[in-house]
Amino acid sequence: MSSHARWIVWIIAAVFCIDAAAMRTQSAKVDLTGSWTFTVQSDAGTSNPMVTFKQNGEKFTGHYSSMLVGEAELTGVVKGQTIEFTVRAEVQGAPLELKYTGTIESKDSMKGTLTTGGFGDGTFTAKRN
To answer: Which residue of 1, 118, 120, 127 sits 20 to 30 Å from the alpha carbon of 90, by its own alpha carbon?
Structure first.
């Protein structure tokens, strides 16, 4: 094989490797848009809020519905496999802020922690509906 032919084979192999790496990076991005069921374990007990996300790039908005909080809007950000979002609501006239921080495990599941600003922190898992 001539040095010119080896050079061409090397270039093709390099392009293939770069393309494969780009495909892995793109496949790691998960679009959270849709309806999710959360299971939250906290000092207040277990709850199952329903959450709807609408993602646009790294940012997303959504709707949160639970027995404790009622109906509330949320905003958040996803970077790589990390998700963070905040729900601001009022419970019996008092402001409440729920902050969820977690890891996306697959396109259909995530888990993490919940902080409530003094009302009992906890953990969560979530599955796409």
So the answer is: 127
Mind listing the pLDDT tens digit for each residue in 92-106? 888 999 999 999 999
CA 33 – CA 52 distance, rounded (Å): 7
Q: What's the total number of domains in the chain? A: 2
**Which of 10-19, 49-58, 98-107 has the least mean pLDDT?**
10-19
Number of alpha helices (DSSP H) and beta strands (DSSP E) in the chain: 1, 9
CA dist., res. 118 & res. 31, Å (int):
31
CA 107, 52, 39, 72 torsion-angle sign: positive
For residue 29, what pLDDT is reported?
81
Residue 120 is predicted with a pLDDT of 77
C-alpha–C-alpha distance, residues 45 and 16, integer Å: 52
Which residue type is seen at 25? Answer: T
Q: Do 25 and 68 fall within a single domain? A: no
pLDDT the model gives residue 92? 85
Identify the CATH number of the domain in which residue 44 sits: 2.40.128.120
Range of the domain at 22: 1-29
